[in-house]
Amino acid sequence: MPTVLQFRRGTTTQNNALTGAVGEITVDTTLDMLRLHDGSAAGGFGVAIGSKVDGSAINITASANNSTDETTYPTFVDGATGAQGIETDTGLTYNPSTGTLTSTIFAGTANAAKYADLAEMYAADESYESGTVLVLGGESEVTSCKEMGDPRVLGIVSTDPAYLMNSGLDTEHVVPVALTGRVFAKVTGKVSKGDLMVTSEVEGHAESWQKSRVYSFGYRQDMISTPSPGSILGKAVAGKDGIGEGIIEIVVGIT
Asked: Nearest-CA neighbor of 121 among 95, 141, 94, 101?
């Protein structure tokens, strides 16, 4: 074989810095692959080769990237064996900087969740901030609570639901309402760990149901009764001192 045909060649770094002529082919000696150039893109485009002449597979060197804030697309092959085409899907993306994999629809089994509440989207009177206690009513589906022990109570505006239902709801003001699980909520008054929590007269807040309350005619009377049916929001995971406002974690949906 006296005749030798050679293309321009160099390392990956050298190839990446080269803007080749239209139709030019270069050899990447680091990755053992060909590069096809178009006259404008630095580095050209890698040309996939199926195998070495001895039939063994060609290894591709991949570098880690967990910091770049960009949208990337996982790739697939269109067959289990044999000649395979590489494909992507715009409905499946990955962002290295956040570690977020996004899919239009996921079918499978999840065995763990990072966050702690189950929430559902509702149309609201306005865009309520996280921790706001909501009841069914108002001009839309839900509104902030404004009275003590309201039996219309629904839940608390969630920050990061472990699972979000009705996510496709599209109205002017949509809020994720935690219906069960642990969620931080706005509260007022003194709270002890384990107290039953109900809606408060302080808008958007919860408060502890106390066995002793002050009535409008001016004296205290012990109360053995429990909150009215349907009015319990949940139980306090943590306590709170003082009569002012604050934020504590509540287990929603436990009575």
From this structure: 141
Q: Where are the domains of the chain?
A: 8-63, 64-108, 117-252
Q: Residue 182: which residues within 8 A CB-CB, separation 6 or more?
A: 116, 117, 237, 249, 250, 251, 252
CA dist 146 and 212 (Å) reads 21
- pTM passes above 0.70: no
In whole angstroms, give the CA distance from residue 190 to residue 145.
19
Q: What is the pLDDT along the chain (255 residues), one digit of tens a residue?
A: 578 878 899 999 999 999 999 999 999 888 888 899 999 999 998 876 665 555 566 666 777 888 889 999 888 888 888 777 888 888 899 999 999 999 988 888 888 888 999 999 999 999 999 999 999 999 999 999 999 999 999 999 999 999 999 999 999 999 999 999 999 999 999 999 999 999 999 999 999 997 545 444 444 454 446 788 899 999 999 999 999 999 999 999 876
Q: Residue 106: how many CB atoms within 10 A of its CB? A: 9
Helix (H) / strand (E) containing 110:
none
Record: fold of 8-63: Seminal Fluid Protein  PDC-109 (Domain B) (2.10.10)
CB 150 within 8 A of CB 201: no
Q: How far apart, in whole angstroms, are the C-alpha atoms of residue 94 and residue 100?
A: 6
d(CA 24, CA 127): 57
Four-way CATH pick for 117-252: 3.40.50.1970, 2.60.40.10, 2.40.300.10, 3.30.70.100: 2.40.300.10
Q: Cα(57)–Cα(50) distance, rounded to whole angstroms?
A: 7
